[in-house]
Amino acid sequence: MTTESVQHESSAPGGPALFDTMSTMRAMRRLKPDAIPDETIDQLIQAAVWGPSGGNMQCYEYVVVTDREVMARLAPLWKRCVDSYLATTGKYAPKGMDEAAYGRMVAAIEYQRDHFARTPVLVIPCYRFPEPRLDEEGLIASAQALGPEATERMMTSQARFQALAEGSCVYPGVQNLLLAARALGLAANITIWHLFLEEEWKRELGIPDDMATFAAIPVGLPVGNFGPVRRRPVAEVVHRDRW
């Protein structure tokens, strides 16, 4: 089996419709230019807001771009980011993926790049992680609970911990948004290529310096049809009880 194996079976009668939604939620990059109603966009953001948020802090904000002039100004930034990706990481097919299938994926990426100014909706999830509230007594108790070796490791991995903490507060909501888009018949795909030029994106969209951005999600009506996703079989990825 490879990553191109089709892992989709229709839900049994009476089974959860969510499973059908997830199993046909491809990254759809070819979008019609038709406008999406504001109430539909609000439904997508509502779904995102319903997502879990670490510590229930809910420090997320969403920039939603629909203005054609703004999208046209973003299009050159998108092109630079995509071209950078395709020249490096995106130059080669992932291990286990058929070259022809990867070629089709790249063609869709290039189509989206070349038609980006016509994107109906672009969603930028943002998060401002609050300063931690720490005191000496709590730090001592934490070190005692972890032990000296683990405490030292924790001190040297703060950057990774911070990134994961922020991401865990944002990406569950992003997944909710993608699921809601699919359920509403909309195409969407999550990208982080904008991070190559994050400062330029933030400047163009007026996003505050202390606000981190976590994705750029184009949304619109699909040109093609939804279909089964291609993923590795469960038996290949699960380790029961231990590795």
TrEMBL record:
Q: Which family does it belong to?
A: Belongs to the nitroreductase family.
Where is the organism placed in the taxonomic lineage, from the top?
Bacteria, Bacillati, Actinomycetota, Actinomycetes, Kitasatosporales
Q: Which residues form a coiled coil?
A: none
Which residue numbers delimit the Nitroreductase domain? 26-220
The answer to whether the entry has keyword Oxidoreductase is yes
Q: Which UniProt keywords apply?
A: Oxidoreductase
Q: Output the SUPFAM superfamilies linked to this UniProt entry.
A: FMN-dependent nitroreductase-like
Q: Which protein, by its recorded name, is this?
A: Nitroreductase family protein
> What would be one Pfam family of this protein?
Nitroreductase
Q: Which species is the source of this protein? A: Streptomyces rhizosphaericola
